[in-house]
């Protein structure tokens, strides 16, 4: 009888915590839907010291059993630390040897520690790497943006150690295939994992009830229409552009919900006052996944103002909730927004972004829940994770065909 294959996921967060980000959400969905045939393990961080650091423990997340190894206490990782968490995580991995049949990395740097480890290694790319490194916008979203040549040197050293490089951004896929032609057959697109157990449409009556309930909680007019921004408050997401666009938006009864935390929070609070939009914005801070799902159902429109992206999971969450999206032209969002599921602002200006929002708000019948759901359908986690796991299991069975229990 063949033994169970070991599948280990590496990323710098506590999956039971409130860490914000599409990578975290995708990993949680992957864990939830990973078939039981795998011995599933996760190497992350801890939000506190309630469990021993540096020791494996048996645990459960969303009903899925897994082995968990917290490398250190990360605290509030929604706000960037002086020493980047990725470097701390990589340093904590150095010198360890983690045996696994499949190693899945969602950042490049930690793979430095895995050189020489046995087992298949996969690197997941979550951003448009070229845009991320070479953007002319603010350079404080990521430390490597100040030293792009250093990042590409590291990448050149490590990338060949991976059996697969999977990118959720088509431009990054093409970039890597062109930059590393000898690795081109290892570089492919992958679909993000959307957890439809949380993000799903409800009846118009239920939407209306959620919207009025939220308006009452915030002390707003019962007819208020909500715009939703969800993500980290830092330079990549450019929430300041969204606030300037809100000032340009001359739609009555519109209120912006900003769900997230990050190092730009104080700057955002100052901008809200300076732009005189205090009555039109609510900062919600970091919210739970369950609360985020409610916000999606209660809102009229989800808005992104990012400088660069891979494929932002919040777009898929909105579409799966039956809500249209307005976004800047970043990442693969323009590729998945089919007709009737949202609009792309072609210019990164407050006026252009406000115009796109206004178009959707004034023409609700042109952006139906059905169109939104159809655009999100290919990304359902159960299907995506199932297909990925089936391929892994097939490779495992081939490589261990002659093993004896």
**CATH hierarchy class name of the largest domain:** Alpha Beta
Cα end-to-end separation: 5 Å
Round the Cα radius of gyration to an integer and report it: 21 Å
Number of strands: 14
Secondary structure category: alpha/beta
Beta-strand percentage range: 15-25%
Mean pLDDT: 90
Shape estimate: globular
CATH architecture of the largest domain: 3-Layer(aba) Sandwich
Number of domains: 2
Find the CATH superfamily of the largest domain: Glycogen Phosphorylase B
Helix content: 25-40%
Major sheet details: 8 strands, mixed
Secondary-structure element series: EHEEEHEEHHEHEHEHEHEHEHEHEHHH
Keywords:
14 helices, 2 domains, 405 residues, globular, six-stranded parallel sheet, Rossmann fold, eight-stranded mixed sheet, 18% strand, 14 strands, alpha/beta
Can you walk me through this structure?
The protein is α/β, with parallel strands linked by helices and 405 residues long. It has two domains: 6-193 and 381-399, Rossmann fold (3-Layer(aba) Sandwich), CATH 3.40.50; 204-379, Rossmann fold, CATH 3.40.50.2000. It is 36% helix and 18% strand. It contains 14 helices and 14 strands. The strands form two sheets. An eight-stranded mixed sheet has the order 3-4-2-1-5-6-7-8. It is globular. It starts with 5 loop residues before the first strand and ends in a 6-residue tail after the last helix. The mean pLDDT is 90.
């Amino acid at each position: 009888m063949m033994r169970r294959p070991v599948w280990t996921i590496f990323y710098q967060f506590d999956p039971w915590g409130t860490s914000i980000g599409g990578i975290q959400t995708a990993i949680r969905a992957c864990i939830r839907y990973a078939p039981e045939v795998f011995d599933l393990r996760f190497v992350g961080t801890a939000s506190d010291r309630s469990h021993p650091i540096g020791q494996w423990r048996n645990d459960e997340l969303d009903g899925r059993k897994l082995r968990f190894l917290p490398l250190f206490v990360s605290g509030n990782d929604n706000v960037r630390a002086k020493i980047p968490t990725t470097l701390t995580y990589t340093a904590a991995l150095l010198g360890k040897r983690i045996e696994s049949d499949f190693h899945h990395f969602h950042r490049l740097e930690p793979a430095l520690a895995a050189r020489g480890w046995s087992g298949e290694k996969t690197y997941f790319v979550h951003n448009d790497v070229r845009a991320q490194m070479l953007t002319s916008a603010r350079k404080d979203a990521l430390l490597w943006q100040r030293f792009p040549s250093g990042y590409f040197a590291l990448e050149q050293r490590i990338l060949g150690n991976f059996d697969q490089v999977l990118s959720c951004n088509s431009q990054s896929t093409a970039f890597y295939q062109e930059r590393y032609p000898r690795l081109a057959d290892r570089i492919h697109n992958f679909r993000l994992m959307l957890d439809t157990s949380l993000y799903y449409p409800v009846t118009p009556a239920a939407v209306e009830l959620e919207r009025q309930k939220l308006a009452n909680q915030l002390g707003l007019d019962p007819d208020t229409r909500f715009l939703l921004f969800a993500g980290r408050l830092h330079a990549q997401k450019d929430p300041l552009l969204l606030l300037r666009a809100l000032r340009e938006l001359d739609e009555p009864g519109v209120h912006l919900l900003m769900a997230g935390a990050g190092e730009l929070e104080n700057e955002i609070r100052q901008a809200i006052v300076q732009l005189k939009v205090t009555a039109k914005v609510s900062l919600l801070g970091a919210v739970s996944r369950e609360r985020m799902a409610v916000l999606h159902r209660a809102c009229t429109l989800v808005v992104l103002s990012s400088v660069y992206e891979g494929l932002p999971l919040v777009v898929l969450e909105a579409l799966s909730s039956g809500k249209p999206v307005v976004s800047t032209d970043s990442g693969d969002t323009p590729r998945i927004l089919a007709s009737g599921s949202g609009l792309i602002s072609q210019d990164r200006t407050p006026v252009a972004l406000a115009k796109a929002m206004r178009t959707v708000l004034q023409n609700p019948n042109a952006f139906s829940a059905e169109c939104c759901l159809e655009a999100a359908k290919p990304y359902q986690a159960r299907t995506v994770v199932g297909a990925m796991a089936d391929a892994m299991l097939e490779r495992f069975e081939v490589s261990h065909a002659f093993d004896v229990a």
